[in-house]
Design goal:
By secondary structure, this protein is an alpha/beta fold. The strands form four sheets. Strands 3, 4, 5, 8, 9, 16 and 17 form a seven-stranded mixed sheet that branches. A six-stranded parallel sheet has the order 12-11-10-13-14-15. Strands 1-2 form a two-stranded antiparallel sheet. Helix 4 crosses helix 5. The protein is globular. The relative contact order is 0.15. The mean pLDDT is 93.
Length: 360
């Protein structure tokens, strides 16, 4: 194995100029309790672009846009942040989705793991010096999958047996764990009706499949050009993105909502929930600042759930669903790692449904 590798370095907040493809990055050495994974494929996610542009900064009130994704968010560059709110350390290798094979192990890890095909759980649980467990985000607070090799805690490299390709498997970790986490937090049960916003995106399309797997009745929100594809994933009904869900569905109709959109449509979502219903959110592509009438919240006894860090069982269950063929990958395209800018441009254009994958 060579001592250097191909990788994409994020040098700081800003536009595409902050992404640097290199062929001379040192291959990381696994430390105690870690494994070294040769990355077979890595997926592109909103968080890659949001971190690069500085969108997580509280000074940025708008949603994600093609212009902002291309040039960065000027107002946020001085105080940009990552998922946790802390300033990221640059340079950083991003990439929260990884499928690959273990090629080396650190102290305390059995050498029998070498050769295993694995999916990387994108949120690590690390015990700090005070004994507290904190979340470390793969590709954000530590180097991720946009490279030939990556090192991860052994416990978060999940062995998987599947006939799916590396590219197909790399479509699952981030989006599907986010979706499964929301559904688990909602405790969605068979026969309950759930609305999924952004249903043609990575998390949304995952939520459609995973909600149907639970026996839910799925009402999906998607654009007209993608409605047929969302129905093919298992949605029982599709409402067009430009329509008013309150007029289409009516008040007090739904048991639960899975939202990754936010923005100006948020107030109507709470109106269509039945009394005692639940709303879960893990994204805000239409805008993070929303209007909330507290009377709607408390008079209807609603439950609002912010969902990012998931329990470890969520990813274990996800691997089992994949191995049993209960969910399927949705791929849009595969690009070489060197074409990361083109991959992110395609991601932001949102013309195609499914995950965009990078291979070194």
């Amino acid at each position: 194995m060579n001592s250097t590798m191909k990788a994409v370095l994020l040098k700081g907040h800003g536009g595409f100029e902050q992404l640097e493809y290199r062929v001379d990055v040192p291959v990381p050495t696994p430390r105690g309790g870690e494994v070294l994974v040769r990355v077979g494929a890595a997926g592109v996610n909103n968080t890659d672009i949001n971190t690069r542009t500085g969108w997580y900064s509280r000074s940025e009130p708008t949603g994600t846009t093609v212009q902002g994704g291309a040039s960065g968010i000027a107002a946020a560059r001085s105080d940009g942040a990552g998922w946790t709110g802390a300033l990221p350390a640059f340079p950083r290798i991003q990439g929260a989705d990884a499928c690959g094979h273990i090629v080396a192990v650190g102290d305390g890890v059995s050498s029998q793991r070498i050769g295993e095909r694995v999916l990387v759980e994108p949120i690590f649980r690390v015990t700090d010096s005070t004994g507290q467990i904190r979340a470390v985000y793969f590709g954000s607070e530590c180097d991720g999958a946009f490279a030939e090799f990556t090192r991860v805690p052994s416990v978060h490299a999940h062995a998987i047996t599947s006939r799916l390709t590396d590219a197909e498997l790399a479509s699952f970790p981030c989006a599907y764990s986010a979706a499964e986490n929301m559904l688990a937090r909602l405790d969605l049960r068979a026969g309950q009706t759930v609305l999924v916003t952004g249903a043609s995106g990575g998390v949304g399309s995952a939520a459609v499949q995973l909600a149907k797997r639970r026996g839910g009745i799925v009402v999906a929100v998607a654009g007209a050009s993608k409605a047929a594809s969302v129905l093919a994933l298992g949605a029982d009904e599709v409402i067009l993105s430009e329509s008013d869900p309150l007029k289409e569905i009516g008040r007090d109709k739904l048991d639960a909502i899975v939202d990754v959109v936010g923005g100006g449509g948020f107030p109507a979502l709470l109106e269509i929930l039945r009394r005692g219903g639940s709303y879960a959110v893990a994204g805000a592509i239409a805008g993070p600042v929303v209007e909330l009438d507290l009377r709607t919240l408390y008079l209807k006894d609603l439950r609002l759930l912010g969902c990012t860090v998931f329990e470890s069982k969520v990813f274990r269950h996800l691997v089992q669903y994949i191995e049993r063929g209960e969910i399927r990958p949705v791929l849009a395209s595969v690009h070489p790692l060197a074409a990361i800018v083109e991959a992110q441009q395609e991601f932001m254009a949102k013309r195609r449904m499914g995950k965009i994958i990078l291979v070194a």
